[in-house]
Amino acid sequence: DVQLVESGGGSVQTGGTMRLSCVVSGFAFEDADMAWWRQAPEKECELVSAFRRDRGPTYSDAVKGRFTISRDNAKNTLYLQLNSLKTEDTAIYYCARGLGRVDYWGQGTQVTVS
Fold it and tell me: How many CB atoms sit inside 10 A of residue 95's CB?
């Protein structure tokens, strides 16, 4: 079975840092385009960052320069380093497989910035 399991969320003060991890199983991680999405209360789900196999990382304008996506294919793990956090970064963060069409999602991890 395909699984994506996020961890690393929590509460942090404005300006703080956090690292999210997503451990995957059940498919060839090294062959997959992966992404981080987030959903804030009463807002639509937003693509935060993606890591394409052939192009590397991309970021939304809202997080560019503050967040860093990376992947460790040997550990089947996708990461998101969150720096200089703002209150507007508060959301549930989801790891996902695929771009354009996401076919698997993790369960999400809550990030709260206050």
Answer: 27
- Half-sphere CA count of 18, side-chain side, radius 13 A: 23
Backbone φ/ψ region at 26: left (φ over 0), alpha (ψ -120 to 50), beta = left
For Cα atoms 57, 79, 113, give the angle at the middle one, nearest 5 degrees. 105
* Interatomic CA distance for residues 37 and 14, integer angstroms: 20
Rounded (5°) CA angle 88-72-98: 65
The amino acid that residue 75 corresponds to is K
pLDDT tens digits, 73-112: 999 999 999 999 999 999 999 999 998 889 999 999 999 9
